[in-house]
Amino acid sequence: MAEARTEQAPPLQRQTTTTTTAAAASGMPDFKQSVKLKYVKLGYHHLITHGAYLLLVPLPGLVAAHLSTFTLRDLADLWQSLQYNLVSVVVCSTLLVIAATAYVLTRPRPVYLVDFACYKPDEERKCSRARFMNCTESLGTFTPANSEFQRKIIERSGLGDDTYLPEAVLNIPPNPSMANARKEAEMVMFGALDELFAKTGVRPKDIGILVVNCSLFNPTPSLSAMVINYYKLRGNIVSYNLGGMGCSAGLISIDLAKDLLQSHPNTYAVIISMENITLNWYFGNNRSMLVSNCLFRMGGAAILLSNRGSARRRSKYQLVHTVRTHKGADDRCFGCVTQREDEDGKVGVSLSKDLMAVAGDALKTNITTLGPLVLPMSEQLLFFATLVARRVLKRKVLSFDVCSEIPAWARSELKDGSSKRVESGRLKG
């Protein structure tokens, strides 16, 4: 570490000496040394964000100054003028009332996230890495190479020793069945909902919208019907059961509930997002299907949304924007997650190697769409200026954030080739 400091000191000393000499020669202070760029940027953000308000500051003073010149004679003349233009006054007032009424009736209703609850299974369902490998090796259906393959995946997956699997999978031998799958679904859904109702104090009869999503388990009666029957929800409830839509179904459910809350005033919406493991455990030796065994676990969550005005005070968040991008038209995206049979006729979920690239591309598209909706105007102006400099003027420029945090001596020694490396390294960091 001492050697690194010794190597970096000369460029810093040279740059400081050069800057001081140039400043002394011009007779001007060195603003780069006296003012930090982050404060300049902070001032810029405040100026752009509150610029409209700053422009309106003199307006009350001008209005007050103008009103101070009014006399009783002026007010009498104004009243007489309005009397002679009664029709115009009535027409303008009527149009104003109609416009205000139309705005109130057609404006989007605010949607609030009141609270949520995540289901936590019993301790008996806990599956550590050692227990997972013990169950895997005890089955005898996996080859030694594939058992070792699963060991490597489970160690690199990021899952700890506090994940959970259903009883039917942990049993030796496993006993997956429709009855056990229903039992798992009921434990997850009812457990999360019981906690949600206890936290919020909302009665099941108050729920007007119910959306349940589970990609791989779609029994008859549906999962949403199971919830309605168990809690004896009201007969006019609007219920949906989403299946086969993968991990994105959770966000799709929120988007659906948001749209439904726009047409059903003064109500609550419950979203249950879960997956079922019992009937979807893979016992074959196709490695693209074995990955799902190492990644997916038992669990679920219930979310309470509302468009009631009284929910604003106690809600955690307000749902402002939802962005959806469907990549199903692309064959590579369409086939990245597929439930199918392997060569031996065993059903499993195949995960393609393109999954991460496809997910990253969809995320990039969503962020591009969401950016103009959530970024402040100051950041949008900076992005536009940088884009013009790069695409139109063909200039090699760094973003404002990157430049403000790179030392002055390092910026002075950056060349065209190294600028890209510094920018990418900063963004990754």
TrEMBL record:
Residues 103-391 form the FAE domain. Pathway: Lipid metabolism; fatty acid biosynthesis. One of its GO terms (biological process) is fatty acid biosynthetic process. Signal peptide: none annotated. GO terms for molecular function: acyltransferase activity, transferring groups other than amino-acyl groups. This is 3-ketoacyl-CoA synthase. One of its GO terms (cellular component) is membrane. Keywords: Acyltransferase, Membrane, Transferase, Transmembrane, Transmembrane helix. The chain crosses the membrane at residues 51-72, 84-105. It comes from Panicum miliaceum. Its EC number is 2.3.1.-. Pfam families: FAE1_CUT1_RppA. The keyword Kinase does not apply.
